[in-house]
Amino acid sequence: MSEAALPMAAAATHADDLRRDARREQLALFGLASPALLLVMVVLVIPVGWLFYLSFIGADGSFSLENYERMFDSKSYRRIFWTTFEISFLTTGICILIGYPLAYFLAQLPRRAANLCLITVLLPFWTSLLVRTYAWLVLLQRKGLINEWAIDLGLWDEPVKLAHNMTGTVIGMVHIMLPFLVLPLYGSMKAIDRDYLRAAANLGAGPVRNFWTVFLPLSLPGLFAGALIVFVLCLGFYVTPAVLGGGKVIMVSMKIASNIELFVNWGAASALGVVLLAATLVILFTAARFVKLDRLAGGGH
Amino acid sequence: MRDSLTDTATEALPITIRGVTKTYGRVHALDDVDLDIRSGEFLTLLGPSGSGKTTLLMVLAGFIRPDRGSLRFGDDEVIRLPPHKRDLGMVFQNYALFPHMTVAGNVAYPLRLRGISKAEAAERVEKALETVQLGGYGARRITQLSGGQKQRVALARAIVFEPRILLMDEPLSALDKKLRERMQIELRHLHDKLGMTTVYVTHDQREALTMSDRIAVINHGRVMQIDTPSRIYDHPANRFVADFIGESTFLPVGRDGPVVAYEGQPLSYTDTPPSGDLVLMIRPERLRILTGEAREANRFEATVTDIVYQGDSYLMYARLADGAEVAVRGVIRSTTFSALPEVGGSVTLGLDPEDTVLIPAGDAPDE
User: Fold this and answer.
1) Do B100 and A200 touch (CB under 8 A)?
2) I need a labelling partner for B354 at 20 to 30 A (CA). Which of A59, A201, A293, B303 fits?
3) To which H or E segment does residue B331 belong?
4) In terms of C-beta distances under 8 Å and separation of at least 24 residues, what long-range contacts does B32-37 make, across chains too?
5) Across the interface, do A196 and B96 touch by the CB < 8 Å criterion?
6) What is the CA radius of gyration of chain A?
7) Do B154 and B286 reside in the same domain of the chain?
8) Predicted local distance difference test score (pLDDT) of residue A60
């Protein structure tokens, strides 16, 4: 054997050892993750799989597609889906209209003041969802504060129907969803380097042009993330439409509840759940592609 | 279409700064600054961090509102003008290129705002990119560029609308040394070609000495000295400037009429020294090791304390009779380094009268 071959052979053995070390390290990491994986299995994969299975079981206990057929044939089901999407879109849209200026305002404040204001935005998070929803009912009902004050002030003569309908539902949902939009949006606005805005001004952009051509495009990823969270949360929302809709605004989640509690029809409820899940996934997938396109355009950070 | 990117000197503008003051709490970021920047010159604001040089540039650009003072571009008072109406080109330290636009989008941005037609804008963008040697890069994304390329795009964006004043805020600080040195020369050539008044901020003295027509040394929000690079280096107006620029040792000297003496030994010098208390400033490369015969040089006896090899040069530290330590720098040739005295040996150092610089003992102009 030549002298040059010796170190080569030694290096080869090391390569095997090193590869084994790397594999062992990966296994150890996997081992650390296994409790979490197990938890996800138990609380997510198994129930969702069971749901999926149930949705294909008909009323007589055999395999059938009747749960899905009913959903696509029945007018009431179509209306429920329509309502769900309508409310989700409306809520998201109004959240954007209210949340963008709010986040913009917060982003302009000095850090201390901004933190204080953020706490007031977050405050509702610390009280029960149900309490907040009923509080809105108190305000919005026929003899509620808003109607009484408005009539006292002469804004309108007859009590206006604010609760137990679409209006009330959307008002309540916007209130609950707003922080989910404002927080990511505020974060992305804070991350915009002031030098971009200075550069734009230096190059001749007045405040309005500066906003439209530089600030807004750079804040879009945050707006997108926030709007997506709000929309997806809205799709499966239950408490607020149930209380403020007064039974007249029926969303998918409420139909699922009534299918189980009233009709004990697990198959129908599961099918609704599956379709809602599928719709959510489709939206997430489309949005992810959209956001990624935006990233490619260099807007993301 | 105008062709001035290739012509020299669009009419440049002089800048007149009078009594500009900016305080943060009790700290004077700018303390009654007066400065005249000549039309078409390359002026560098040089100073340590926190000296106020960037604040002054931000005042010029309109991003910082001073407490008082006057600022004129040519004959126009602009102190109250918002930044977007000042019509200045500016290169930011981190370039501030818009990440949601292409290279061409960035460079065309100021043209778009000025309502220039698409066709003309495209032509001018390409010409500006060629000027900074990035022709054909228009369609690239900002994220695809290297640091040096971003630097050039930022420059193209700042000159494409032919501003008469160009501001640069430490534009080369993010580049590595080799590239930085090449860009220094390039920036200087570009300035000579375009002829706009350029105000350049840096804390790098070598950069300032390399590029500038004049340097304004700033400290504690005040202008310590404004002069050409060689005057600043060879004839600093005060101890701060002498200390900040280049290496130097200061020796206390006594003064008796025209006779200035160090340790009782009268010094010969050529320039009339300023009035008041003086110190002798010695630059390491101006000291020579004397070997016997010497012409009219000031002589210092010293003991060698250390010798450092630095590749192109050596640095020798020597202690004078009064305990002060001076440094001597010399070029290394095959013979010079081996001929140096041993550490601990004694040596005679010579300083030519032309290099014998006497400066005020105080730290600032009016101390």
Assistant:
1) no
2) B303
3) strand B325-331
4) B32/B69, B32/B222, B33/B69, B33/B221, B33/B222, B33/B223, B34/B223, B35/B216, B35/B223, B35/B226, B37/B197, B37/B199
5) yes
6) 27
7) no
8) 78
User: Hey, is the C-beta of B114 within 8 angstroms of any chain A C-beta?
Assistant: yes
Tell me the per-residue pLDDT of B14-72, one tens digit each, with 9 for 90 and over.
999 999 999 998 888 999 999 999 999 999 999 999 899 999 999 999 999 999 999 99
Indicate if B130 and B202 belong to the same structural domain.
Answer: yes
| Cα atoms found within 13 Å of the Cα of residue B198, Cβ hemisphere only | 32
Inspect the interface and report whether the beta carbons of B142 and A196 lie closer than 8 Å: no
Number of domains in chain B: 2
B239, B365 in Cβ contact below 8 A? no
Residue B365 in domain:
no
- ipTM surpasses 0.90: no
Boundaries of every domain in chain A: 1-54, 77-297
Query: Could you tell me if B255 and B277 are in contact, meaning their C-beta atoms sit under 8 angstroms apart?
Result: yes
In this predicted structure, the answer to whether residue B8 has a pLDDT above a threshold of 70 is no
Digit-coded pLDDT (tens) for B212-259: 999 999 999 999 999 999 999 999 998 999 999 988 899 989 888 788
Select from 3.20.20.330, 1.25.40.10, 2.60.270.50, 1.10.3720.10 the CATH code of A77-297: 1.10.3720.10
The answer to whether residues B224 and B78 belong to one domain is yes
CB B158 within 8 A of CB B189: no
Task: Give the position of tokens 């604010």.
Answer: A162
Res A171 pLDDT > 60:
yes
Q: Which of A193, A206, A299 minimises the CB distance to B84?
A: A206
Q: Are B211 and B190 part of one and the same domain?
A: yes
Domain that holds residue B269: 247-360
The residue among B211, B239, B267 that closes a domain is: B239
Q: What is the pLDDT of residues A103-142, one digit of tens each?
A: 999 999 988 998 898 888 888 778 888 888 888 888 888 8
Q: Which of A203, A211, A293 is the best substitution to test chain B (most B C-beta atoms within 10 A)? A: A203
Q: Does residue B62 share a domain with residue B105?
A: yes
Tokens at B246, concatenated: 């280049």
A193 at B interface, C-beta within 8 A: yes
According to the model, what pLDDT value does residue A300 have?
40
Nearest Cα of chain B lies from the Cα of A97 at a distance, in angstroms, of: 23
Do B207 and B94 share a structural domain?
yes
- In this prediction, residue B3 carries a pLDDT of 44
* B161/A217 touch (CB, cutoff 8 Å), yes or no: no
Question: Measured between CB atoms, which of A196, A198, A297 is closest to B63?
Answer: A198
Q: Within this chain, do residues B26 and B158 fall inside the same structural domain, yes or no?
A: yes
Kindly give, in sequence order, each residue whose CB lies less than 8 Å from that of residue B177, ignoring residues fewer than 6 positions away: none
Which residue is closest to B161 within chain A, CA to CA? A203
CATH number at residue B349: 2.40.50.140
Q: How far apart are CA A116 and CA B75, in angstroms?
A: 47
pTM of the model: 0.80
Q: Does B252 touch chain A if contact means CB atoms closer than 8 Å?
A: no
Q: How far does B125 lie from chain A, in Å, by closest CA?
A: 14
